[in-house]
């Protein structure tokens, strides 16, 4: 089946969004020429000095028929590994989807204003779709519960895909797709806001709450607990064809067999979607939704501009918590991302330009922040650039400040400062790494001009090294590069190599500058340690490449680490790891009490 999509309109929306802010940060020639690289960061911040403007009129959801609901405790997953009690609306609660949607539409039609969700518990069996010039505000004590029922997010989309439901244009782990609607969604909108009065203003995706119809919950689709189950993203989905010849007959036999030769069956949904991208299958034929198991993001915007997210808390996200794609001029401030489910990244801007993240707090089931830019052949939206992250708290997660791994279109000009990596669960579930860059020969892309300074890591990170399995014939000895966990700073250009069959895109990592990190030790059963190694820098491996011959495999280069104290690594014999690097400069770097000033080539 092929969905009917006006792809020309979609392309025009993307172009229009770019035009709206054409004179923005991307043309900051003064910053590019400045001897102070942080001048560009100051100009990013200055772009948001003037607040968004909305008409002074309130649209109360109760005026459109919304009614509060009663809640009661239910047994639910509160983390991927632990069950507990979670409050959830009583079955049969009043559905506020029609009322909230009507309020937003009325506000938009009137030229804008504020849609007010007042104090109380509200149940919504469908997505919250934001529109231009509309400010949706949750009052203090307002909690919006989204139904734990996948069918509700395949009911109202603008693309009718028959038995797969009414779906929306989305992007899943870097690949374009027609899928369930994210729980909060916007496409092609300009000048809108989603705010809360404080962190008692809650958006609850009920990711670990049992489905209203059927077995399991959103988080079960990850396939981590029910590995033998068929209703997961990792299981073979019989709806996906046994051969890509059915959807991409133009491929040669060799091309088709290479794409299909993944370690995990390419017919599993999480592998089938990137296979479609690799095979050049257009978006209109990438139909998932009902019968498939790719969880929607909690909040996702496609091709939008001039956005404010402020002052609320996210709980129970099915998948990534915030995922703006191809957006411009986005400001997220004082948002608490508190969702510990699988792949519950906090904030993942993808192919975005001009983004300010400040005063946010992260307690996540995966990376806290992960800057991204497409995967496989889905690079049309271009790179992510001009991102400033400041004054944020990272309580827990896999990576703290992360770039990648989906970065096929490139990432540049990212700045981060005054970050506090608390690692509050260091005893049982420690932060894997604080500052992480990850790509491989499949994702490829460039990563350049990344600056980070003035950060504290009081409780260190994971003090036991963890390693990815290597490809057969790898030039890297087994268990030598602790890129999974253990390095305070990790640059990994061979991320999860066994997961990729097509490895033809050579990553290019350069101009990374890190200064003034302070890493504390924690009292482990075997001593006081801060990490496994101070830093792990693994450049691209020529042995992982399986593309046409003749392309240069570039080292990671022009990296500076200065004025840092890494505490005491557990691996005292090898306090750092470096492979295929050139010009890594250490200046006034203290490790286990010893100061290093050196230039590394390895």
Automatic annotation (TrEMBL):
Q: Which Gene Ontology terms describe the biological processes this protein takes part in?
A: carbohydrate metabolic process
Q: Does the keyword Hydrolase apply?
A: yes
The record's section on SUPFAM superfamilies has: Pectin lyase-like
User: What GO molecular-function term can you cite, just one?
Assistant: polygalacturonase activity
Task: Please name the Gene3D superfamilies in this protein's record.
Answer: Single-stranded right-handed beta-helix, Pectin lyase-like (2.160.20.10)
Name one matching Pfam family.
Glyco_hydro_28
Write out the entry's keywords from A to Z: Glycosidase, Hydrolase
Top-level taxon in the UniProt lineage: Bacteria
- Asked if the keyword Repeat belongs to this entry, the reply reads no
Family membership noted in the UniProt record: Belongs to the glycosyl hydrolase 28 family.
Recorded protein name is Glycoside hydrolase family 28 protein
Q: Which organism is it from?
A: Massilia horti
